[in-house]
């Protein structure tokens, strides 16, 4: 397994991974409009657009297959963190997060990060040190938990 910076040639695999996992674990809680909005905003075209806007992505690959992705917006917001179902529970999400976090810290982030977590991912982010800032928020049919990590170590 290898973790590396994502390139534009990876966007189709990234979008497929996100769509597969979102359909199984996340969007069932959303309204129909929320499902459409979430899946549409995480298409290959959108991810390529995010890269062009400066989002930083890293992927985990196993034998050439994308098995995990982490994406950071504005050097401080954890925008995407998805791990293939067959690789969940083995620490890959943490490894991806640590790679992304280290990159942000090296570029001047003082240790403050935010994430809008799906309900099922809250325990994962809590294990990284994130804390909920409010209860569940609904926006355009999409549910999420705003969380923050202040790690000035």
Automatic annotation (TrEMBL):
It comes from the Bacteria. Residues 1-152 form the N-acetyltransferase domain. SUPFAM superfamilies: Acyl-CoA N-acyltransferases (Nat). One of its GO terms (molecular function) is acyltransferase activity, transferring groups other than amino-acyl groups. The keyword Ligase does not apply. PROSITE patterns: GNAT (PS51186). InterPro entries: Acyl_CoA_acyltransferase, GNAT_dom, N-acetyltrans/Recomb-assoc. This is GNAT family N-acetyltransferase. It comes from Marinobacter panjinensis. The lineage of its organism: Bacteria, Pseudomonadati, Pseudomonadota, Gammaproteobacteria, Pseudomonadales.
């Amino acid at each position: 397994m290898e973790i590396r910076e994502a390139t534009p040639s990876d966007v189709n695999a990234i979008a497929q991974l996100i769509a597969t996992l979102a359909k199984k674990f996340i969007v069932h809680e959303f309204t129909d409009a929320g499902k459409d909005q979430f899946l549409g905003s995480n298409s290959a075209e959108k991810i390529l657009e995010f890269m062009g806007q400066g989002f930083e992505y890293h992927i985990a690959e196993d034998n050439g297959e994308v098995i995990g992705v982490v994406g950071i917006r504005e050097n401080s917001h954890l925008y995407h963190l998805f791990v293939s179902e067959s690789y969940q529970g083995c620490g890959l999400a943490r490894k991806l997060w640590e790679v992304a976090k280290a990159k942000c810290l090296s570029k001047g982030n003082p240790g403050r990060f935010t994430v809008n977590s799906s309900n099922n991912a809250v325990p994962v982010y809590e294990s990284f040190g994130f804390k909920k800032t409010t209860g569940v928020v609904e926006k355009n049919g999409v549910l999420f938990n705003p969380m923050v990590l202040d790690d000035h170590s």
